[in-house]
Amino acid sequence: MRFLLALLAAASAFGAVTGVTTNATTGKPQAGVSIDLVQPGANGMQALGNAKSAADGTFTIDASIPPGPALLRSTYAGVTYTQAIPPGTPTTGLTVNVFEASAVPPTDMTTQHLILIEPSATTLHISETFFTKNNSNITYFDATNGTLKLYLPQGVPADLKISIDSTGVPIQRPVQKGRQNGQYKVDYPLKPGETRFDLEYSLPASDTFSSRVLAETPATKLVTPGSVTLSGDALTDLGQEQQTQARVYTFKGNSFKVKILGVGSIRGPEAVAPPPGEESGAPKCCEEAPARVNTQMAWVLGLSLTILLLGGTLLFRRGTV
């Protein structure tokens, strides 16, 4: 035991990063995992070292970490997992978890879909948020058909990008056309835990809005500012959320067409532009280029739509209309 501690201390002194890679699906050490040690910098990610896990899952990267945070990026079964090493924390005896991947969606996975409708005199601004919770111990990744599938109305821009957050650091991915007419897909592995997708687009001003959804349960929620009301067939008014005064609706089936009355925005004029000198989004320290998330998304939808999700669910459970 003393000999092992001495070896670990020596490794730390020479700046090595050591640990064990575990397959969290099987619960066993995982061999052959490619592990990169990187650090975010002014010029992007700086490679510090790399290694492959041995037969017993152990790995050693002979590199020291300069001042600041670092990341371990572990690639297994075509999926990259990112783990932060904060400044001042131990760099030896780390545990790196990876998972088996499947192109079949886990049965223990749910997605809540919110659509925020904000009409003005000149545009119809739409924000869609998907909260996905993967309660299994398998990563869902379907590179062919996409792991997030969605319908978008006609007239959306062709170069849409979606903001994705599963680690606290948003990144962006393109929204690609799917196989069916009007259907789109996003290629991103849904790892165990929670993943959030945020999408924004604007359409010409209109007093109606229609679209489709893939799943009828859980029911998609339509959200409007308090000054805007919706009406339509099979539409249910769930009431107003107390903190934002937003109105929450749901509908039966997998398509809807609503009549819009009024104009307004939950976010207000102060959310249109970021404060001078500030950049929205998170620090550049993830496995991919982080999203330049629209400030309206970053610090309003992050709070407001989460509140709406909880508030709308509570209203639905209580039967409030």
Q: How many separate helices?
A: 2
- Arrangement of strands in the largest sheet: 15-14-18-11-10-20-23-22
Mean of all residue-level pLDDT scores: 82
- The CA-CA distance between the termini, in Å, is 65 Å
Query: Oligomerization state of this entry?
Result: single chain
Largest sheet: 8 strands, mixed
Work out the strand percent: 35-45%
How many structural units, i.e. domains?
A: 2
Order of helices and strands: HEEEEEEEEEEEEEEEEEEEEEEEEH
Instruction: Compute the CA-based radius of gyration.
Output: 23 Å
State the shape: elongated
Number of strands: 24
Supply the helix-strand structural class: mainly beta
Low-confidence residue ranges:
1-13, 270-303, 312-321
| DSSP helix fraction | 10-25%
Description:
The chain has 321 residues and is mostly beta strands. The protein folds into 2 domains: 2-99, Immunoglobulins (Immunoglobulin-like, Sandwich), CATH 2.60.40; 109-318. The chain is built from 2 helices and 24 strands. The protein has helices at 2-13, 295-318; strands at residues 16-23, 28-29, 34-41, 44-52, 58-62, 70-76, 79-85, 94-98, 101-102, 109-119, 123-134, 139-140, 148-151, 161-165, 171-174, 176-177, 183-186, 193-204, 208-212, 221-224, 229-231, 235-240, 247-251, 255-261. The strands form 6 sheets. An 8-stranded mixed sheet has the order 15-14-18-11-10-20-23-22, covered by helices on one side. Strands 1, 2, 5 and 8 form a 4-stranded mixed sheet that branches. The chain has a 4-stranded antiparallel sheet with strand order 4-3-6-7, with no helix packed on it. The radius of gyration is 23 Å and the shape is elongated.
